Inverse folding.
């Protein structure tokens, strides 16, 4: 058992109902099984559009928007998250939508409940990286459960995001190379841990896990993200909170990779 992850699990169990209400406000979870582009970027669709009938695993599934989109596209989806609170809400919503989804509560760095080479595609991301202490094991487990030749799609909050915040003056910006851990205590009294992994960390972890890169892209998010932004902006204006003048930077990092076939190992030549 990873004590750091268990602390973060307690945080997310404490936040689950609040997060569920937050997602209810934008309502995208009710529609994404009919229109996957609400929660999947164009880059993600490139790798996941043809998953009908295939086994797909969504790691750190959170609010399960991606899970519902893939299920609506005809994939046989397994939803994995560390928070039982999040999964309880997701199961209720899946029943409401009439979607057949398998749910598993598990730490993404310890997927022993899932067999080797079991899935045609694995999706993960959406802001989970900051909660992961054993980053290479995260990618290693995601790759282990993939079939050889299977696709790994990682759509993660861009590593710039935790370094830059709207409240942080430019002369007090965090060090991009400082991975953490950064600790804090939630309003509910839980201790949380965050890590700031870099773009290079993501790419190297995918390569080390046994994947070959197909695509690396920086982008600004999905329809759901833009709707949430609009709601957050309205709240900020209502609360008279001014946003800092920061440059426009990408919000998401997309990595598309394929698990190497047996014996097809890429060897370094330098």
């Amino acid at each position: 058992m990873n004590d750091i992850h268990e602390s973060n699990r307690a945080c997310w169990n404490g936040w689950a109902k609040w997060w569920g209400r937050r997602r209810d406000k934008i309502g995208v979870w009710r529609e994404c099984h009919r229109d996957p582009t609400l929660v999947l970027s164009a880059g993600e669709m490139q790798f996941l559009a043809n998953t009908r009938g295939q086994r797909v695993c969504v790691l750190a599934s959170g609010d399960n928007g991606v899970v519902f989109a893939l299920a609506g596209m005809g994939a046989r989806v397994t939803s994995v998250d560390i928070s039982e609170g999040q999964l309880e809400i997701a199961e209720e919503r899946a029943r409401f939508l009439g979607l057949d989804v398998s749910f598993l509560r598990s730490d993404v760095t310890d997927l022993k409940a899932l067999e080797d080479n079991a899935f045609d595609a694995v999706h993960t991301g959406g802001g989970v990286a900051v909660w992961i202490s054993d980053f290479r094991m995260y990618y290693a487990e995601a790759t282990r459960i993939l079939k050889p030749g299977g696709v790994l799609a990682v759509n993660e909050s861009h590593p710039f995001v935790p370094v830059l915040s709207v409240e942080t003056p430019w002369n007090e910006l965090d060090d991009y190379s400082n991975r953490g851990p950064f600790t804090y205590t939630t309003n509910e009294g839980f201790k949380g841990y965050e890590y700031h992994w870099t773009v290079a960390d993501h790419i190297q972890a995918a390569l080390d896990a046994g994947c070959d890169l197909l695509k690396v892209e920086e982008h600004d998010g999905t329809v759901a993200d833009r709707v949430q932004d609009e709601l957050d902006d309205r709240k900020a204006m209502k609360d008279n909170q001014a946003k800092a003048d920061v440059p426009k930077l990408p919000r998401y990092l997309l990595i598309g990779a394929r698990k190497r076939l047996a014996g097809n190992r890429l060897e370094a030549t330098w």
In short: Residues 166-170, 233-245, 266-270 have pLDDT under 50 and may be disordered. The two ends are 38 Å apart (CA to CA). The CA atoms of residues 144 and 211 lie 10 Å apart. Strands lie at 55-59, 76-81, 101-105, 119-125, 146-157, 182-185, 191-194, 211-219, 252-259.
